[in-house]
TrEMBL record:
Record key words, sorted: DNA-binding, Transcription, Transcription regulation
Name assigned to this protein: DNA-binding MarR family transcriptional regulator
Residue span(s) of domain HTH marR-type: 1-131
Keyword field contains DNA-binding: yes
Gene3D superfamilies noted in UniProt: 1.10.287.100, Winged helix-like DNA-binding domain superfamily/Winged helix DNA-binding domain
């Protein structure tokens, strides 16, 4: 297996894929935080810090801005009164869902241009890509 080529192809695909939605525009850090909160549910800022490639002051500032914009909310952590949990608001979830729906529509149009054989290969790759994601999350 040519892992160098696989890496390049994934990078090229990601470059296109992250730009597919043309609905509301956000910077990458904002989208990453919104996506993480959508996938992982309410989490502490320290846990969010572990998933994002931002330093704590930058993430704290971003969370404050997103809270001010009504896209996320903080509430007390029921297990530790000194900490708070961060979660998406309805508006934040709507942004994530609308971007996903738009991405699905655009990707569907691209997939429809593939041959039946190519679509079959792609369909078979979904579970493998999901497993790679799981392995990446398990590996420190």
């Amino acid at each position: 297996m040519d892992v160098d080529r696989l890496t390049t192809v994934i990078e090229d695909f990601n470059t296109i894929f992250i730009r597919l939605p043309s609905v509301r525009k956000f910077n990458f850090s904002t989208l990453s935080v919104l996506h993480t909160l959508d996938r992982r549910g309410p989490i502490r800022l320290t846990d969010l810090l572990a998933t994002e490639q931002l330093k704590q002051p930058a993430l704290t500032s971003l969370v404050a801005k997103l809270e001010q914009d009504g896209l996320l909310q903080r509430r007390p952590d029921p297990t530790d009164g000194r900490a708070s949990l961060i979660s998406l608001t309805r508006s934040g979830r709507q942004i994530v869902r609308s971007r996903h729906a738009h991405r699905v529509a655009k990707l569907t149009r691209l997939v429809d241009q593939l041959t039946p054989e190519e679509r079959a290969v792609l369909a078979g790759s979904v579970d493998v890509l999901n497993r790679l994601t799981e392995l990446a999350e398990e590996t420190p």
